[in-house]
């Protein structure tokens, strides 16, 4: 159905870099119902077979935490015109939820997440690769704001996790993927000019009626 004209966009960047803002601006620039967004966070491995203690011990900022095979399959399904049942994930339960989200094929597919550009097989499906860059201190502040409100963590818990897990994982796995990007957007979601240029480019990919 959409195989010949589907545009697949990968958007990566550190946690708290502003990826969601960039995705939102792109979606707003395109016709309604034109975009399918596939958050990498929805594709954490199913850990139903593990105990609560084992689940909470998982490093969710390591590539091994993601179900790359399922993500690649579902991106490919959408590209070839097949609807998917996208998994959903609970940060509070550290596991997938029974509910899925029905996603129909769309002309534009956006894959968004911290390690979106890490997996070569997935990267090879992309027509445009974007890395959203942001200063580490700003990302830390955004993590504190988000996790204390949405994920029930204290400030000290967020800072400790940032220093022990997020920072080393970012330096080892996320930052190096910047070299795969076609476009790098500094200052994350605050870079209105960069996002505007990106929007104009993507709008140009949309067939005119």
UniProtKB/TrEMBL annotation:
Pathway: Pyrimidine metabolism; UMP biosynthesis via salvage pathway; UMP from uridine: step 1/1; Pyrimidine metabolism; CTP biosynthesis via salvage pathway; CTP from cytidine: step 1/3. It is found in: Cytoplasm. One of its GO terms (molecular function) is ATP binding. Its main location: cytoplasm. ATP binds at residues 13-20. The keyword Nucleotide-binding applies. Its EC number is 2.7.1.48. This is Uridine kinase. It catalyses: cytidine + ATP = CMP + ADP + H(+); uridine + ATP = UMP + ADP + H(+). It comes from Segatella oulorum. It comes from the Bacteria. InterPro entries: P-loop_NTPase, PRK/URK, Uridine_kinase, Uridine_kinase-like. Belongs to the uridine kinase family.
């Amino acid at each position: 159905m959409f195989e010949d004209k589907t545009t697949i966009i990968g958007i990566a960047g550190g946690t708290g870099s502003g990826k969601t803002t960039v995705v939102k601006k792109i979606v707003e620039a395109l016709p309604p119902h034109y975009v399918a967004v596939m958050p990498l966070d929805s594709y954490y491995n199913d850990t139903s077979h593990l105990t609560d203690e084992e689940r909470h011990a998982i490093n969710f900022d390591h590539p091994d935490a993601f179900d790359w095979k399922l993500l690649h399959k579902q991106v490919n399904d959408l590209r070839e015109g097949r609807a998917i049942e996208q998994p959903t994930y609970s940060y509070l339960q550290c596991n997938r939820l029974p509910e899925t989200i029905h996603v129909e094929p769309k002309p534009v597919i956006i894959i968004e997440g911290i390690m979106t550009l890490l997996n070569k097989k997935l990267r090879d499906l992309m027509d445009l690769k974007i890395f959203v860059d942001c200063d580490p201190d700003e990302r830390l502040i955004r993590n504190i704001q988000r996790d204390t409100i949405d994920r029930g963590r204290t400030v000290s818990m967020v800072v400790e996790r940032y220093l022990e897990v997020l920072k080393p994982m970012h330096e080892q796995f996320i930052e190096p993927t910047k070299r795969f990007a076609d476009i790098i957007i500094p200052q994350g979601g605050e870079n209105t000019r960069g996002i505007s240029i990106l929007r104009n480019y993507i709008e140009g990919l949309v067939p005119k009626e």
